[in-house]
């Protein structure tokens, strides 16, 4: 099978059997889990890897000379190496463990704020921003990639600007590039939108940002789990993603950064394990990645995330992408045939991730979700932590179906059939129910 071919029906069924949670019924129906964009389920291989570590090797890392401490430290750092390889990092030291992607974005934003207050010495001067400088985001960002930059602007006096979205919720490279100037110091945007499924024009934005000396921060939460991610090829400066969206556990995220940038960025969370020397008057911090890993670390979670990475590598990320693009086309084609449905995001024929957000005319998104749940179909409803985007689209909320490696054509077909019934059930189609 070619490495970029969609998964076959039998392959997806075999994958699905690896996920114990997907073998159950919900409300008397087989579970069709279409909420992977929020949290992915975990295969038994990942569950087993974390349990084995906890039962055999668990101890504090980097802190002891006994056998279990050595074993746990090796497992922790081996996991870092595995994740670094998965995203094309130049070295494992470019991978920083965080509690999630939100934490990673705050780490960068508050690190820049600290540098702007004079912390970090001469090496950190490259990060200094202040009045007259600008931070650029897009109107489509998840709150986790918006609020930290709002705070950075408030703390430093810089100006927050944003790339506007069109009526379908997408934005263009041209509109982004037009807003990048010598005043721009940081450009932050999602690789793949968690609402529209749009794949960002990374190369054009990075080229413009770097031409003006700006740093690029990439939110890869919806790309790292679903398509090949090569941070060096993308030429971004920082990238973040979460374990729980890619078959791994909660409580762990990843910050990748260029080594020279991480070593110069002041930490914003301080304490034990990230220091070299402490006196009562002064502290010296370790180089990256340890300088950002204060306190007790999520060791078993790192081990489990590495196992999730190996599971995805066993499938092949090109095939993961092809499978989800196949499902996205099936979703779009099916929803296009249902009256009263408004889909947001790129139109059919434009590459997008395997998620689709939509509005059902006359029916609130929460009612849509509850109707589907009654038939064992799990979707997300709400603003998906993207209120400005929904406000721009004139919507309070949308419903979102998001797929993954274990999503079958049958799952999608059940979803489409149920969506086709919703307006009639709620009397929103003008016909008495």
From TrEMBL:
Recorded superkingdom: Bacteria
Keywords (A to Z) from UniProt: Pyridoxal phosphate, Transferase
Keyword Secreted: no
Catalytic activity: (sulfur carrier)-H + L-cysteine = (sulfur carrier)-SH + L-alanine
Cofactor(s) essential for the protein: pyridoxal 5'-phosphate
Record InterPro entries: Aminotrans_V_dom, Aminotrans_V_PyrdxlP_BS, Cys_dSase_SufS, PyrdxlP-dep_Trfase, PyrdxlP-dep_Trfase_major, PyrdxlP-dep_Trfase_small
Gene3D superfamilies named in the record: Aspartate Aminotransferase, domain 1, Type I PLP-dependent aspartate aminotransferase-like (Major domain)
The keyword Transferase is assigned to this record: yes
Enzyme nomenclature, EC number: 2.8.1.7
Ranges where the Aminotransferase class V domain occurs: 33-415
Family that this chain belongs to: Belongs to the class-V pyridoxal-phosphate-dependent aminotransferase family. Csd subfamily.
Functional description taken from the UniProt entry: Catalyzes the removal of elemental sulfur and selenium atoms from L-cysteine, L-cystine, L-selenocysteine, and L-selenocystine to produce L-alanine.
Protein name, UniProt field: Cysteine desulfurase
Gene (name only): sufS
């Amino acid at each position: 099978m070619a490495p970029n071919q969609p998964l076959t029906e039998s392959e997806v069924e075999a994958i699905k059997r690896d996920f114990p949670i997907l073998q159950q019924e919900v409300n008397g129906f087989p579970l069709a889990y279409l909420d992977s964009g929020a949290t992915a389920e975990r295969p038994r291989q990942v569950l087993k890897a974390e349990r084995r570590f906890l039962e055999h090797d668990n101890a504090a890392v980097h802190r002891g000379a006994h056998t279990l401490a050595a074993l746990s430290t090796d497992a922790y750092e081996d996991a870092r190496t595995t994740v670094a390889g998965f995203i094309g990092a130049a070295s494992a030291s470019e991978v920083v463990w965080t509690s999630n992607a939100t934490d990673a974005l705050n780490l960068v934003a508050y690190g820049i704020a600290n540098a702007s207050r004079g912390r970090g010495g001469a090496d950190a001067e490259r990060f200094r921003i202040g009045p007259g400088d600008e931070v650029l985001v897009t109107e489509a960002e998840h709150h986790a990639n918006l609020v930290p930059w709002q705070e950075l602007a408030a703390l430093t006096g810089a100006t927050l600007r944003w790339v506007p979205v069109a009526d379908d919720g997408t934005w263009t490279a041209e509109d982004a590039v037009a807003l990048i100037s010598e005043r721009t110091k940081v450009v932050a945007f999602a690789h793949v939108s968690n609402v529209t499924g749009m794949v960002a024009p990374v190369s054009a934005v990075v080229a413009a940002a770097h031409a003006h000396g700006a740093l690029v921060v990439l939110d890869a939460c919806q790309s790292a789990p679903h398509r090949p991610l090569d941070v060096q090829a993308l030429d971004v400066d920082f990238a973040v993603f979460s374990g729980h969206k890619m078959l791994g556990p909660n409580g762990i995220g990843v910050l990748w950064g260029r080594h020279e940038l991480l070593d110069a960025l002041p930490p914003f969370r301080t304490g034990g394990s990230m220091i070299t020397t402490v006196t009562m008057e002064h502290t010296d911090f370790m180089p990256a990645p340890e300088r950002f890993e204060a306190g007790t670390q999520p060791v078993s979670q790192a081990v489990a995330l590495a196992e999730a990475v190996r599971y995805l590598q066993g499938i092949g990320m090109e095939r993961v992408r092809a499978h989800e693009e196949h499902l996205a086309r099936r979703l779009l084609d099916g929803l296009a045939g249902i009256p009263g449905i408004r889909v947001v995001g790129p139109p059919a024929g434009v590459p997008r991730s395997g998620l689709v957000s939509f509005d059902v005319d006359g029916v609130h998104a929460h009612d849509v979700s509850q109707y589907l749940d009654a038939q064992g179909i799990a979707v997300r409803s709400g603003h998906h932590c993207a209120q400005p985007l929904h406000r721009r689209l004139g919507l309070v909320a949308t419903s979102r179906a998001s797929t993954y490696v274990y999503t079958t054509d049958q799952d999608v077909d059940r979803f489409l059939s149920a969506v086709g019934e919703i307006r009639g059930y709620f009397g929103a189609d003008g016909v008495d129910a």
